[in-house]
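A.,

Following up on our hallway conversation. Structure tokens first:
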């Protein structure tokens, strides 16, 4: 079955749906349901925070295993595992769960498996299998769809839990999403182009010959892990993750501290989400006019400028504050795509899932550290400014490291004109 005459775009659409199910729902939708559930059952805020923390840790720890599973049994079967764990966890929470440990197992562990096995690793591996020359564009679309879906997910879950069924009805949405995911996988997702699809996809002609040449000279995972270039890319992800974690955990309190109203400060979250989507989409345009590494450096430079602007917000100027927040969100979205684009172009498709897993581990460490340390520093000194400057400094160091690196092989032109997939 082809969509608009292009099988690759049909697969990309299906993978975007899977990313929404396995990432948007557990991250954004669950934050709403967990709050209602904890309030209704009388759980304290520590338990509520523990649900999210354990979920994040599980996703990070399971990422290398998920990458190995993708390599051994394929993208489709990995996605199926994730859908099944979402259905199991959702059904448990919707019918039986009354104790914190049950919520930790059903949500933090089982849905952590969902995000690991049917989220960013298999979906991006699918993109790498179906797209060569338009890989960066496909990754941009993948991330942008997930960002845009977060708004719909929050609205849907909020409406459902406010219904007569209460918070348990919210978990039935997760079960239904798992069913939709199963059907989506069985009908539309394919591991890689084969037969007629391979001949009509991007993997034809010069692209196929180039891919074959790269395979014969591809490095082993061990050699790639010894590459300074890989760790410069991973450190770039670590750097922007520290900034994004600060924005999620502390930006509202920071803006309130300079006199911005709670309602206006709360708007920073949807603003960050919206501008992140914009950055996801715009990175491809930037990379098309230079190369991936330079585009990443430019994106991170704008990220640093955004934090400099935040540090200089001394009055309650709402317009300036929103411009600074928007710049941070857009540059984070661009940098997020840039990291994945470099991983997908600089090394072989076979290693892509495991390289993503490595970067996700590094990203999680950065995010968790900043979320905790920034709060601890503020409690002790009643200011976030040194934290903001530290985040900017880490990003400058990441920029300098990337600037010093050279790709190990000539990368594809990002998005040339083509009538193929």
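Then the amino acids I'd put at each of the 421 positions:
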């Amino acid at each position: 079955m082809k969509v608009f005459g292009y099988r690759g775009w049909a697969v990309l659409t299906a993978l975007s749906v899977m990313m929404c199910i396995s990432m948007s729902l557990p991250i954004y939708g669950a934050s709403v349901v967990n709050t209602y559930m904890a309030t209704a059952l009388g759980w304290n805020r520590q338990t509520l925070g523990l649900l999210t923390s354990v979920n994040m840790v599980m996703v990070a720890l399971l990422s290398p295993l998920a990458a190995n599973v993708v390599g051994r049994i394929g993208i489709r079967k990995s996605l199926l595992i994730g859908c099944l764990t979402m259905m199991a966890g959702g059904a448990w929470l919707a019918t039986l769960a009354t104790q914190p440990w049950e919520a930790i197992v059903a949500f933090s562990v089982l849905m952590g498996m969902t995000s690991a096995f049917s989220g960013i690793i298999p979906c991006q591996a699918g993109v790498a299998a179906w797209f060569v020359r338009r890989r960066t564009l496909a990754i941009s679309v993948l991330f942008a769809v997930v960002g845009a879906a977060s708004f719909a997910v929050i609205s849907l879950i909020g409406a459902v839990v406010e219904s007569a069924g209460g918070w348990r009805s919210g978990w039935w949405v997760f079960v239904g999403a798992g069913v939709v995911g199963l059907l989506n996988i069985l009908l539309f997702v394919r591991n890689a182009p084969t037969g007629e699809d391979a001949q009509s996809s991007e993997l034809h002609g010069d692209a196929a010959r180039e891919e074959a040449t790269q395979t014969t000279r591809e490095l082993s995972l061990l050699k790639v892990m010894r590459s300074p270039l890989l760790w410069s890319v991973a450190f770039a992800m670590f750097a922007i993750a520290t900034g994004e974690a600060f924005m999620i955990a502390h930006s509202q309190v920071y803006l309130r501290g300079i006199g911005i109203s709670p309602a206006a400060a709360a708007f920073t979250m949807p603003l960050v989400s919206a501008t992140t989507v914009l950055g996801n989409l715009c990175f491809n345009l930037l990379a098309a006019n230079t190369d991936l590494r330079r585009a990443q450096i430019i994106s991170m430079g704008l990220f640093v400028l955004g934090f400099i602007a935040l540090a200089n917000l001394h009055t309650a100027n709402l317009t300036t504050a929103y411009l600074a927040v928007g710049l941070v969100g857009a540059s984070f979205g661009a940098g997020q795509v840039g990291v994945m684009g470099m991983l997908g172009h600089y090394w072989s498709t076979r290693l892509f899932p495991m390289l993503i897993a490595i970067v996700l581990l590094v990203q999680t460490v950065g995010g968790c550290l900043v979320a905790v340390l920034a709060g601890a520093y503020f409690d002790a000194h009643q200011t976030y400014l040194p934290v903001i400057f530290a985040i900017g400094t880490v990003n400058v160091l990441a920029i300098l490291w990337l600037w010093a690196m050279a790709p190990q092989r000539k990368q594809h032109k990002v998005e040339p004109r083509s009538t193929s997939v």
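The chain has two domains: 7-193, 219-404. Curious whether your intuition agrees with the design.

B.
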